[in-house]
Amino acid sequence: MLPSSTRTLRIRISGMICAACATQIEDALIKLDGVDRVLVSLPLERATVIYNSDCLTPNDVEEAVQQAGYVASVGNRTTQENMELLLRSEQLQTLRST
Predict the structure, then answer these.
(1) Phi then psi for 34, rounded to 5 degrees?
(2) DSSP letters along 35-91, please?
(3) DSSP label of 34
(4) Residue whose C-alpha is closest to residue 31's, from 49, 46, 18, 44
(5) Radius of gyration of the chain measured on its C-alpha atoms
(6) Is residue 38 within 8 Å of 27, Cβ to Cβ?
(7) pTM for this entry
(8) Which of 11, 36, 39, 75 is deepest in the core (most CB within 10 A)?
(9) Average pLDDT of 60-85?
(10) Which residues contact 6 (CB under 8 A, 6 or more apart)?
(11) Which of 74, 77, 64 is nearest to 24 (CA)?
(12) CB 65 within 8 A of CB 31
């Protein structure tokens, strides 16, 4: 059973262009005291962080991503942002299949 101070945070990230970018962000986040697990998704431009809220805040996570050289924001995407992401994903699929 997880402690009551365990939280899950989804953070939007832009500026990633390859798997190495995602790995760099994962490495930066897992080094933070209180972070238990990190999953960075390049196609979704998002990181999911499981952390101890007694040790750090969502702003700490956001700042760590920014210090790694990427743009980060906590919160949900707008409908327009979701549509743009879907379009980019479709374009990537087209490029991969040609």
Answers:
(1) 100, -10
(2) EEEEEEETTTTEEEEEEETTT--HHHHHHHHHHTT-EEEESPPPHHHHHHHHHHHHH
(3) T
(4) 49
(5) 14
(6) no
(7) 0.75
(8) 11
(9) 85
(10) 36, 50, 51, 52, 53
(11) 64
(12) no
Q: Which amino acid is at 98?
A: T
Give the tens place of pLDDT for each residue, 13-40: 999 999 999 999 999 999 999 999 999 9
How far is Cα 76 from Cα 95, in angstroms, rounded to an integer?
A: 28
Give the single-character DSSP code of 26: H
* CA distances, 5 to each of 1, 37, 52 (Å): 12, 14, 5
Q: Looking at the chain, how many residues does it have?
A: 98
3: Cα within 13 Å, side-chain hemisphere: 10
